[in-house]
Specification:
With about 90 residues, the protein is of the alpha+beta class. It has a single domain (about 15-85), classed as Phosphatidylinositol 3-kinase Catalytic Subunit, Chain A, domain 1 (Ubiquitin-like (UB roll)). About 15% of the residues lie in helices and about 30% in strands. It is built from one helix and five strands. It has one helix spanning about 40-50, and strands at about 15-25, 30-35, 55-60, 65, 80-85. It has a five-stranded mixed sheet with strand order 2-1-5-3-4, with helices on one face. A hairpin with a 2-residue loop joins strand 3 (about 55-60) and strand 4. The longest helix has 12 residues, at about 40-50.
Length: about 90
Amino acid sequence: MADSGIPGGDVATPAEHLNIKVTDNNNEVFFKIKRSTQLKKLMDAFCDRQGKDASTVRFLFDGTRVRPEDTPDTLEMADGDTLEVHQEQIGGC
């Protein structure tokens, strides 16, 4: 029998880097990060660029709050996904 020419184990692997959009509805910033990078780096970089204090905002992905130790892999993010930034709201009676 002839070789089929299909290499064994040729499975599409996800790209090592992702392009992630971060928006606060006024500004959009694009970041290229590794799948294993903690999102704290991205969150801090966004706050630095926008002049915001990281403790005054929260980041959401698909409606779920993002923790600093999360990574794109743990959140199952794909290339082109968006993180939303909202003002932290405290209190209420």
